[in-house]
Amino acid sequence: MQFHLNGFQPGDPDKHAAGDQSTRAHVLPGETDVLIVGCGPAGLCLAAQLAAYPEISSVIVEKKSGPMEKGQADGLNVRSMEMFQAFGSAQKVMRESLWINETTFWAPMREDPAKIHRVGRVQDVEDGLSEMPHVLLNQGRVHDMFLDLMKNAATGLEPFYDHGFETLTIDADASDYPVRAVLSCTDENGEAQEKTLKARYVVGCDGARSNVRKAIGGELHGDSANQAWGVMDVLAVTDFPDIRMKSIIQSHKDGNILVLPREGGYLVRLYVELDKLNENERVANRDFTVDHMISAANRIFSPFSIDVKDVVWWSIYEIGHRLTDKFDDVPSDQTATRTPRVFTAGDACHTHSPKAGQGMNVSMGDTFNLGWKLISVLTGRAAPDLLHSYSDERRDAARGLVEFDHTWSRVVGASGESASTQSGDMPHFQRAFINNGRFTAGLTIKYQPSTLTGDATGQALATGFDIGMRFHSSPVVRLADAMPMHLGHAARADASWRIILFAPAKDPLSVDGSFQKLCDFLEADPASPLKLYTPAGADPDAVINLHAVFQQHFRDVEIGDLPAVLLPRKGRFGLIDYENVFCADHRDEQDIFDLRGVDRDKGCVVIVRPDQHVANILPLEDHKGLAEYFANILLPVADK
Ligand SMILES: Cc1cc2nc3c(=O)[nH]c(=O)nc-3n(C[C@H](O)[C@H](O)[C@H](O)COP(=O)(O)OP(=O)(O)OC[C@H]3O[C@@H](n4cnc5c(N)ncnc54)[C@H](O)[C@@H]3O)c2cc1C
Questions:
Q1: Do 485 and 620 share a domain, yes or no?
Q2: Which of 162, 347, 349 to mutate for ligand 1's pocket (most ligand atoms within 8 Å of CB)?
Q3: How much is the pLDDT for 183?
């Protein structure tokens, strides 16, 4: 991490000096740039991004009286962990969470179907998919992480608890704060109170029963599997040997269980299949209790048993697979004439079974996509029509999730009789688990060609960086201090772009070479994106970070030979930022050029979006293409 840029900063570098709220009153303002409704993973992930921008005002409201402590989701896939790395929180989460390394599969014994036995096991995340682990952690602790980021950021943003969002109206003619939101709360005497707040943008992260979605006329469409499931987080004693492994258990006649060991070494979560529901029957109408769940668990676990000592949290739910028709307030036939003012994200747009562990991940993914777009528009870097891309991109991602969830629920909910246990045969549910590994890891989202995402023209220059998909990190060595690290970890969740120059093998720094010529263009040409979009007085990497990766060993590249544009001068002292230049790691087959199929002769340019997705790949010679890419998205500083 980088700090002390503008002078020595004593104390915790994670705490922004300007963020201390201890002397400021926490009073709801009359107007704000962004109103976020709901302190779940979607709302907090958005708030954490906005909080770093003092020039953007944000308010986040939550109808509950305080932060969540337990329950709900716990799965963090590798993609979310990659995102946490950009927030600077991945190490903390890795330390506290439970890592899922292996998944085991249990089915009825052939000779005695009332008893289960282990029929398969598999490494949970395929080697090479990501440098990050798949982990489990209480959703409340994920919230705490974002709340800390908000509090420690430049704005010291904190939620307004006990504030429920009721409804909103949009005044299409108002230029400043066109959305008027109505909130409900209680005054100091406990009397119900109504408050109004004007906002430029409202983001409904208010869960499956979203009032924001209703206010813009959205509905969830889909179906229900008419199946009741229970979930409980327990402290228990059991002779089931895989209680510290993720285990999928299919019994003969008593239903199925998903075992998820949890952080701390003792806690365990069990998803337990309960009864079939009748058509249109709601689970609330049945009188299921935690004792039903514990009894069902013991039947399914047979010949093993589980003695539950403490139930920390439990819930009963039915599986529904639903998707909203609107991720923003603009009807599809009006996108040419209107830009969005109201968005929905997370469970407000899509609901699915918890067993694939996607809810928290996809919800954060929604607002990681929206956050940089809102920041770009509110800081004047981009025109408001950029905001249309949120709905376009995330509706496709959500549709894929809901379709997958249908299939996966059937696999997990199938009876043990259908799990093939013949010797040598891989059980159906194990094969399905392996086939879906990339999806559940969160790595299959691919944004389609658009203004933001290039087509496949340049793909051959770096076959391992899939255009439209998340940037697949790889080891490198930072040139200036020989630090072995991951290239992807140079990215920060700060709404900035990355242009990564992969240098050709031969004479990369020769004056006539494509690499040097591109650096000259970026440094001095009036059409350079670095010149056009960096505000006067801002650091050169305020909007676009330039990185370079050489094929040579780090001992064979001289810092003094580098083009100046790779050593930007920053802050009030004009200090040099040395952390933008990397070399391939020549140890243990870790060379990024091999791992990601980068053309060694030609090199290439990889543009990475602020949300870590690969935007485009271009030849080093294509200065015009690079300039055009950004010209279609960002507004030149001079035009503002
Ligand atoms: C009871 C419950 C149990 C769950 N159990 C599991 C599980 O076992 N496993 C799993 O993977 N997933 C589970 N989930 C789903 C998972 O928690 C979600 O997918 C994930 O949290 C989605 O994040 P989100 O931010 O979109 O919404 P949420 O986490 O639902 O957050 C929405 C927030 O908005 C607040 N809110 C709602 N309406 C208003 C309003 N009008 N005004 C202000 N605030 C409002 C809510 O209080 C809540 O804090 C569960 C969800 C619920 C509700």
A1: yes
A2: 347
A3: 98
Separation CA 182–CA 434 (nearest Å) = 47
CA angle 10, 14, 20 (to 5 degrees): 75
Distance CA 611, CA 371 (A): 9
CA dihedral sign of residues 79, 83, 85, 86: positive
Q: Is the CB of 47 under 6 A from ligand 1?
A: no
Instruction: Please tell me the distance between residue 343's alpha carbon and the centre of ligand 1 in angstroms.
Output: 17
Pocket lining: 164 vs ligand 1, CB cutoff 6 Å: yes
Q: Which domain covers residue 513, as residue numbers?
A: 456-639
Ligand 1 lined by 38 (C-beta under 6 Å): yes
Model confidence, pTM = 0.96
39 lines ligand 1 (CB under 6 A): yes
Atom of ligand 1 nearest to the CA of 61: 43
344 lines ligand 1 (CB under 6 A): no
Rounded distance between C-alpha atoms, residue 486 and residue 490, angstroms? 7
Residue 6: inside a domain, yes or no?
no
Q: Which residues pair with 235 in a beta bridge?
A: 310
Instruction: Give the atom of ligand 1 at the shortest distance from the alpha carbon of 366.
Output: 26
Output the domain CATH number for residue 489: 3.40.30.20
Q: By C-alpha distance, which of 228, 224, 226, 232 is closest to 274?
A: 228
The conformational region for residue 260 under phi > 0 = left, psi -120 to 50 = alpha, else beta, is beta
Cα 220 to middle of ligand 1, angstroms = 15
Strands 268-276 and 256-261 come out as antiparallel
Torsion of CA 611, 614, 619, 622, to 10 degrees: -40
Question: Atom of ligand 1 at shortest distance to CA of 166?
Answer: 41
Span 245-264, pLDDT tens digits:
999 999 999 999 999 999 99
* Residue 253 C-beta-side C-alpha neighbours within 13 Å: 3
- 495 dihedral zone (left: phi>0; alpha: psi -120 to 50; beta): left
Query: Which residues of the chain carry a pLDDT beneath 50?
Result: 418, 420, 422-423
Please check whether residues 475 and 603 belong to one and the same domain. Answer: yes
- Among residues 193, 186, 199, which one has the least CA distance to residue 60? 199
Tens-digit pLDDT profile for residues 215-228: 999 999 988 777 78
CATH number, domain at 387?
A: 3.50.50.60
Residues 385, 498: one domain?
A: no
| 130 in Cβ contact with 28 (< 8 Å) | no
- Whose alpha carbon is nearest atom 35 of ligand 1? 38
Phi, psi of 105, rounded to the nearest 5 degrees = -125, 130
